[in-house]
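To close the section, here is one more complete example, presented without commentary so you can practise reading it yourself. The ligand is MTE.
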Amino acid sequence: MPIHRRRGWELPASRLTPEAVALDRRRLLAGAALGAGAIAAGGHALRDAFGQGRDPVAWWEAQAANDPTRDLYPATRTARYTLDRPITEAREAIIYNNFYEFGSHKTIWQAAQRLELRPWTLRIDGMVAAERTVDIDTLIRRFPLEERTYRFRCVEAWAMAVPWTGFPLAELVRWAEPQAGAKYVVFQSFQDAKVAPGFRQSWYPWPYTDGLTIEEATNELTLMVTGIYGKPLPPQMGAPLRVITPWKYGFKQPKSIVRMTFTDRRPVSFWETLQPNEYGFWANVNPEVPHPRWSQAVERMLGTGERRPTQIWNGYGAFVAHLYEGLKGERLFA
Ligand code: MTE
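Output:
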């Protein structure tokens, strides 16, 4: 996405990929377990798991069948959040991803299978009544899951329309009991150099970080996402926990979150640290404010390639425009 100015010492993606997709021994064992589940489900994922041409959907279905929270899916869809376009094919959404920890290109889905999804914990700290660390399955079972269909828009001008499963971040914020002075919540993605080759690219400001104001975080649209298309998230889409704010560009929505910090200081995100002239704090979708390298006037739907005019706030103005009244001096759309 965002930038990629290759520096002299950076390895080209073609040299990173073979290593990234190689299955380590642990993953092989996990693969065997997945395969067994898939056979029980009548699938052919065992062959896919060990074969050269693994099928992304079969691989994901096998994983989902073994997920400790699989009984919670599919969750009931909330009718309030409607789409103006067809849902993107699952196969298209799960093979075209931005996840720089696994590579600075779009075909990271295989590399991302190295991410170990359990055990997984979320640390909640900073300006809260009591800091705590919660196990992901306890967390997911604490808040009722629902399905919502949302548009999703990347600043690179590709877009999708997908059914996410999750729970409102507002509920988690309430549970975290932020102190009165907390103004922002900051999300941090996982950081494990044994799992993802991107961490060796030391010029990136790891871990991937971004944040929201408390008002944005508690807006009804903001979802802590655990699943998609009626199944637990696949690793490449940010399992086991990511945040979704559909009126903002995709880079504001960190994947595979391990930490949430409440603070009174506006955070500087991963991308803003790298390119402050291109990426700011707010990053709300607006067709009339071009990114230096991408016009935002039109978006291209994954899968169909259909081009549609971009909508301000990505079409969610009725839910969120009021959050930004009185902030006229801010770069709300970068
Ligand atoms: N989260 C992490 N940890 N690392 C990333 O590189 N990329 C962001 C966002 N969240 C990214 C991330 C960007 S630029 C986009 S557009 C979306 O994830 C892509 O989400 P998707 O691959 O699930 O479609």
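Once you have examined the tokens, check your reading against these statements. Residues 5-52 have pLDDT under 50 and may be disordered. The pocket of MTE is lined by residues 1, 97-101, 154, 189, 208, 237-238, 250-251, 253-256 (CB under 6 Å).
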